[in-house]
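A favour, since you know our structure tokens better than I do. What I am after is a single protein written out in full by you. Could you add the entry underneath, on a fresh line?


***
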Amino acid sequence: MKKWITIALQMGLLWLFAVLGGLVSDYLHLPISGSIIGIFILFTCLKLRILPLQWFEQGADWLLATLLLFFIPAAVGIIEHSELVSMAGIGLIGMVILSTFLVMSSTGLVAEFISRMRRGNTK
């Protein structure tokens, strides 16, 4: 039970950063989503060691583990508008495959680069 309370509190902290980012975006009239600004503020606080990673770790891990569930509403929306899919189906499928490949490739390259940097081998 304590684990779930910790996860809920940590998710609440993550949500507060999204709200803070939204307030900053609205106040400064920025064309950037508040959640993006909030995640940047959180990253800065973690990097400068203003806030410890332990305050967010379990909540973030749980959100990442359940990330697939957040895409189900998008899939239902696509099914409801099947006429759009039928008109541009092949192109849409091609773009999904291409974007998936690009994301996976770039993630792999960045992870490999970071791994080499940590070992001291930058070749």
Summary: The chain has a mean pLDDT of 85. Residues 89-119 form the longest helix (31 residues). The two ends are 48 Å apart (CA to CA).
